Automatic annotation (TrEMBL):
Name of the protein this chain belongs to: DUF4345 domain-containing protein
Signal sequence bounds: none
Coiled coil feature spans: none
Species annotation: Zobellia barbeyronii
Membrane keyword on record: yes
Length: 131
């Protein structure tokens, strides 16, 4: 039982990230359901193409995180990718907030979640790399 709890805590950042990013990616890549969740209207093929590319990028990154959960030899790289992904998204949102103004509540939650997960992932990397 203790081993299972340790496994959950070690992989928590990757599991939470995948649980958030997989549905987000699917929403980004689905122009018909996107307006229901975000204030975005997809009215050009170019925007639809860009959003589907972002969807596949999100799903591919989440796949690396899940690989890190189930294959211990990939855990460190998956965690490093998680740090890079979350903190660069948060940085990009911060730039947009300064340059463009404040977005809707979903994106405000996004920057907070990305900062928390990115910093927690950094903590996890330091904690479990020392083992």
């Amino acid at each position: 039982m203790k081993d299972k709890i340790n496994w959950i805590f070690k992989n928590l950042h990757l599991l939470v990230s995948a649980a958030i990013v997989i549905p987000t990616g699917i929403i980004y890549g689905s122009p018909s359901i996107l307006p229901e969740h975000l204030d975005i209207q997809v009215q050009t093929i170019d925007l639809s193409n860009m959003l589907k590319a972002i969807m596949c990028l999100y799903l591919g990154i989440a796949l690396v995180w899940l690989l890190g959960v189930w294959k211990p030899e990939y855990w460190k790289k998956a965690t490093q990718l998680n740090i890079l992904f979350m903190l660069t998204l948060a940085f990009g949102r911060a730039i947009s907030m300064v340059a463009d103004g404040f977005p809707t509540g979903g994106y405000i939650f996004g920057i907070i979640a990305e900062l928390v997960i990115g910093l927690f992932s950094f903590y996890q990397l330091k904690k479990y790399s020392a083992e």
